[in-house]
Amino acid sequence: MRKTSYAATFVAVLAILIINILSSRLPDWLIARYDVANTHVTVRYGLMQRCESSTISIPGPNKGRLEYADYECRQFPLRVQDKCEKENRLFCALWTSAQYFTELGNGFAGMGLVALVIGVSTHSRRRRVWRAVAGLVILHAVFQLVTFILVTELYRKDRFPGFEHAKPGVGYVLNAVSWVSGFAVGAGVIITGVAADRGQQWAAGNRSYTPIPGSRRRLNKPVQNYGSNV
To answer: Which chain regions cross the lipid bilayer (predicted)?
Structure first.
């Protein structure tokens, strides 16, 4: 493969990794909003955090209104507060698994970047490393897809009481972008790598390798020795 192809792949994988890191850290995969008396409450659920903001609005003097706002974040899910030892045991196990899967996916994307840096050092490595890069990027996408499926199923089936009024947020969308992009980049690397191995110049460049027909037979043909009899 061309160096430019590897450079483009590096930029794409780096962008995917950054998107997924942001997605895993944002506390807004699911957002629930509801009103209680004079209080407007917004609860944001991320893979690792739960953030709650509340705004209390009460009538004030001179026909005005007094407002008090509060914002608090905590780790999510927690054993006691989220009842992980009782009725929400399955939910907590699956949600925690989604956290692990997304971190594993980040690890594979990072390994793909390392493989790209090492693989472009020599021409012989550039001919082979695309297989490892494609595999690592696709593994990244697979783990992000598993995370997406787990969160979607928990949200769709209301496995947690707070999800009844929830809607998908930015973190959820970014995760979808990361695994869709991962599969697209992996497929692009495979297509380009196979084309380079077949000697197509658009993929392999000016130093493409094309085996000469019959060269193997000529190399393996025994050489006849000519000598004089003494």
So the answer is: 104-122, 129-152, 172-196
**Angle at the Cα of 91 (from 86 to 96), degrees rounded to 5?**
115
Residue 83, Cα to own-chain centre: how many angstroms?
Answer: 29
Number of other CB atoms surrounding residue 142 within 10 Å: 18
Question: How far is 101 from 228, CA to CA, in rounded Å?
Answer: 75
pLDDT the model gives residue 56: 86
3-state secondary structure of 111: helix
Residue 216 to residue 18: CA distance in whole angstroms: 47
Phi, psi of 190 (to 5 degrees): -65, -45
Structure tokens at 32: 């629930």
> Residue 140 and residue 133: Cα distance in Å, rounded?
11
The larger pLDDT score, comparing residue 171 to residue 6, is at: 171
Taking the CA atoms of residue 86, residue 87, residue 91 and residue 96 in that order, the dihedral angle to the nearest 10 degrees is -10
> Got the DSSP string for 3-24?
HHHHHHHHHHHHHHHHHHHHHH
- Number of Cβ atoms within 10 Å of the Cβ of 16: 26
Asked: is 3-31+83-206 a CATH 3.40.50.2300 domain? The reply is no
pTM summary value: 0.80
What number of other Cβ atoms are within 10 A of residue 170's Cβ? 15
Q: Using CB atoms within 10 Å of the CB of residue 212, give its burial: 0 to 12 exposed, 13 to 18 middle, 19+ buried.
A: exposed
Per residue in 51-71, pLDDT (tens digit) is: 999 988 877 777 677 788 889
Angle at 74 between CA 175 and CA 178, to 5 degrees: 5
Helix (H/G/I), strand (E/B), else coil: 52? strand
Name the nearest CA neighbour of 6 among 111, 144, 107, 134.
134
